[in-house]
Design a protein that fits this description.
It is built from 36 helices and 3 strands. The protein is an all-alpha fold. Among the domains are: 85 residues, Leucine-rich Repeat Variant, CATH 1.25.10; 156 residues, Serine Threonine Protein Phosphatase 5, Tetratricopeptide repeat (Alpha Horseshoe), CATH 1.25.40; 92 residues. Strands 1-3-2 form a 3-stranded antiparallel beta sheet. A hairpin with a 2-residue loop joins strand 2 and strand 3. Helix 10 runs antiparallel to helix 11 and helix 10 packs parallel to helix 12. The radius of gyration is 30 Å and the shape is globular. The protein starts with 15 loop residues before the first helix and ends with a helix. It holds the Pfam family Importin_rep_6. It is found in: Cytoplasm. InterPro entries: ARM-like, ARM-type_fold, HEAT, IMB1_TNPO1-like_TPR, Importin_beta, Importin_rep_6.
Length: 753
Amino acid sequence: MAASASAGVPATVSGKQEFYQLLKNLINPSCMVRRQAEEIYENIPGLCKTTFLLDAVRNRRAGYEDPHPRVRAAACTTLGQMATDFAPNFQKKFHETVIAALLRTMENQGNQRVQSHAASALIIFIEDCPKSLLVLYLDSMVRNLHSILVIKLQELIRNGTKLALEQLVTTIASVADTIEEKFVPYYDIFMPSLKHTVELAVQKELKLLKGKTIECISHVGLAVGKEKFMQDASNVMQLLLKTQSDLNNMEDDDPQTSYMVSAWARMCKILGSDFQQYLPLVIEPLIKTASAKPDVALLDTQDVENMSDDDGWQFVNLGDQQSFGIKTSGLEAKATACQMLVYYAKELREGFVDYTEQVVKLMVPLLKFYFHDNVRVAAAESLPFLLECARIRGPEYLAQMWQFICDPLIKAIGTEPDTDVLSEIMNSFAKSIEVMGDGCLNDEHLEELGEILKAKLEGHFKNQELRQVKRQEENYDQQVEMSLQDEDECDVYILTKVSDILHSLFSTYKEKILPWFEQLLPLIVNLICSNRPWPDRQWGLCIFDDIIEHCSPTSFKYVEYFRWPMLLNMRDNNPEVRQAAAYGLGVMAQFGGDDYRSLCSEAVPLLVKVIKCANSKTKKNVIATENCISAVGKILRFKPNCVNVDEVLPHWLSWLPLHEDKEEAIQTLSFLCDLVESNHPIVLGPNNSNLPKIISIIAEGKINETINYEDPCAKRLANVVRQVQTSEELWLECISHLDDEQQEALQALLNFA
């Protein structure tokens, strides 16, 4: 039952004035007023809600007075939330009115906070706005943003006001990030103002502005590309170097640090090998900061009490009137320096080779640096990239480096106490295995790894049992349940990393790793039991998917463990489980050999049933459904004797194109090429009647960025289009079914492939 109106909350909203009152109540200090307002707000029709919001943002008159600035700010925030919740349909439907309203609000100099909220809403709106729509307003929008930037920069110089400017530079970065190369014509009008902002932002209170502007510059540079950016590269690099030179003096909570890290990463990406000239200037100070050892002390309780909070020490009471202390003031700078080293190794590769040995000797011991989680995260993250760098110097040098890394990295998986850090260490190990390849682990390493993974899986099941016990205790309530769910999410995340490690072993060692794997087999089989929570079944199936994909035909000896779970989980309520099952059925057809023929036959009706379900293409279900479509295609392609191809093929063609799962989409396009190139009569249709459909599928593949020009499939698809073009009548018939965007996509494909 809906709550009755009170404290000024209208029971219904029939006009703008009541809607503005409702917006005020949404930010009312009273919880009861806010809850009642939220109930009413949820029941307002979408179109009416959007109209009222836009009027509020535009500052139109409502009755006898303009909306209060707080109402306008709330309206901007709500528009941003709607842009997130209903993307991309909200953007497609309201792009013209929303962009215009938010830009006008940003231009209005009456209230900095309203301007800031409008800029924030525009950022959110742009993130999910199709590029093709955004370019319609590009010129007026970008020039408006530049005019506002000039005004806000003058206000900074005169009055020191910065709130709207901070949000504005983030908006500019978001626009550049979205439209990419189309930002080139506007580069020259923005870059001088952005550089000037960095130069002006020297006071402590302007550090956040400086950090955001540096980030904006790097986004703009990445958008326009190296050729255009090079005219300012030297000047921008000097600004960055000047800021980095103060790294040792940065406070732990300095807002610039995170922006600096991401900006340096983009600068490496923009400049590529040209960045190497700057590396000697920054690498040694970074290594020095990353190598810094924290001050620690063992003090009496009385000495601790006499110390000031401003001294930058944290203490842990050890009992017996003694405390262990660590000076934390330099730890954030150490973590930031380590993260920058990660980015340099990742982006520069060949250019970083000379520093690889020095950095790996720094990073490996930091896997045990328990004073700061982000230091250990950076240490773990760096190792696969350092191995990539080492590989450039040859296999012997690479083997020596791996020998130095491997044992401490495995031990860190077994000893790391923090879940978030552990996940990064496990991810690093999995990536390192893929870099090193078959045979990189000796018997002792495999034995230790097996024991660790077995303990992780056994701990996973034990923790689930303990949580169920806690749910039966007297003090169990909603707060306890939330805590238990958080614990469960952490456990599941570690389970995904166990899956990643096994994936790396299966994909590199192939069937040779199966005897080692059998110590874990009972635990993996337990994951896919019908009574397990759905994430267990999802990841258990993923592990068997990898065995089928990488270890066939030997994988068939485990078929009785996964046959029925894979088929039955095609009916599961959770799309993630259906996706894992469908993918497994597809790789059975592709890699499994003749032993899997009967299983593939059983799978087809289950896959078709999921595809034809009424809600199969909803946002929640679409990726699972696309995996089903791809699996049917793989069965048709690799196990045609298992199915009536002539009956199923027309249905499969009608389900294309795939939009969301890029890997499966390219598989389907490759099969489509096979069929067209062989002039398959069912696919081409009577008198080539299916060709317009096929051409539209290819166009959609280009629009959705499924087609990668480096993939051989791109050239084959382009050749299909060229073949159709040889018949003018047929080509005109095909393009008559395409809109302008699809025709442009086809032309782009032909130009590059």
